[in-house]
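To close the chapter, one final illustration. This time we ask the reader to focus less on the individual chains and more on the assembly as a whole: which components sit near each other, and how the overall shape emerges from the parts.
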Amino acid sequence: MNHWPLIRPSGDRAVLIEFENRIDPEINRQVRSLALTIEEEKTAGIEEVLPAFRTLMVTYDPLILDHEILQKNVRSWLDKAKNIHLPPGRVFALPTVYGGEHGPDLELVSGMTGLPAAEVVRIVSETKFLVYFVGFICGLVHLGGLSEKLGVPRLNTPRAFVPAGSVGMGGGQVTVLPTDLPSGFNYIGRTFVSLYDPKGFPPISFLAGDEIQFKSVTEEEALKARGKEAAEFA
Amino acid sequence: MKVFQVLNPGVLTTIQDFGRKGFMKYGTPVSGSADPFAAEVANLLVGNDPGAALLEVTLFRLELLVLGNLAIAVTGGDLTPTINKVPFPRWQSVRVRPGDRIAFRRRKTGFRAYLAVQGGVSAEEFLHSRSVFVRGLMGQPLRAETILSTEGEVTGDFQPRIIPPEMVPDYSKRSPLRVILGPQDYRFTAKGIETFLTSEYKVSTQADRMGYRLEGPKIEHVKGADIFSECIARGAIQVPGNGLPIILLWDAQVSGGYTKIANVISADLSTLAQVMPGEALRFEKVSLEEAHQALRRQKERLEEIRNILVDRKG
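The assembled structure is written out below.
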């Protein structure tokens, strides 16, 4: 049996701290608690502190911070993290238009789940999805909290182009696209709030621990948010 | 001050510096010069800060019209740089005049060359860096007709600088890339690890600043290739279900859900930047201590070069 958490090198400039191997809000909370602890230490040589679902990667400069000292520090930071106060994340309510041209797969999801389209929209729009972490590219949010009733598979053939702001699901996961991207998810709605700004700081508004709600509004209402930053909806 | 007009943008030419550090938690990779050793030396040769913005030239066909009296230096792979069709020496500073044409004509060794100009190349900054990162909507590769500038005025009036020939890397020499196993090496069978460490892999045509897909013997997993998405270190070698490794590099996504068998050591990433599609690679396992020792040696080598160049400045 493994004894979590495990600390492994990930190349010569990063360590990976692994917690229990499942996607679970409580485990992700442990990840974020450790991240905050390490950020507050401001140790010389630590470059980036990167939470994911159940792991934390810490990148470092090995010519400034010795790897063995880092390993030892991580063990003491793990103890410290148990008692740290993790401030609550922010809640974003993003105006979202469902179905029609903005949600081309809503009827498909309705058909696969046997739920009326209105019920699919109700379930998704009422859920506050937890941001487990921000990653991939252009700050793609990795969200949790999709109802098991909506466990639809990904599309057989991914689309080459899905517009920014599209809200979709597949394989038990839900996401919102920060930029135009190819994707194999089933897209049921779209928000026009600007989610990624390469010229801004930060380039994206969300961080691990925040929550996002895709509030159902009319198309007219949704379009009013065009170009506005997500921070305005927190 | 205007320095170059792009006559032909070449296969791929991007502006790079040391990249944007500290933004991976916002889903933004570091990017930056693929061969930071060559880039830093090019900058030092023209009196710039080591991380000043310069041109990363891939393969050939780049052609520039010189618009001022400039000091330039070309390092990295040998892509046969010429001034008015006459080859000029690499790894030293060179003076050019208005009307000169700089061209990269033919690849001899390596894959990427660095062209630094005194004063550094001016470009829009995204998160404090001028490194072009196309997928992140942070700048674009050079295009024909583009005019490049430096921040301030430069005179080209410059004490020539050169580094001793024995300090120039030999890109035709190919030793195995050194790797640290993990973090998911336990997800591969003993046979899979052996395949990885003893086989020759060919860099496929799908090789760019994001990563290199490799072709060769399939690497056997214990069971499945998927993990819950986690952050990816630069140089990570992920092996998806088809058993063929992908080395994730400068502009790679910051997280992903495939098992990673090993990670190329930092000191060998400059070498990897000079490997081109179609060439063969091998991997050799080393310890973390050896990797850090190699990185220390590389840093010492750069310091030595810096000392030599600063002395020459007089």
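Residues 288-313 of chain B form the longest helix (26 residues). DSSP finds four helices and 21 strands in chain B. With these observations in hand, you are ready for the problems at the end of the chapter.
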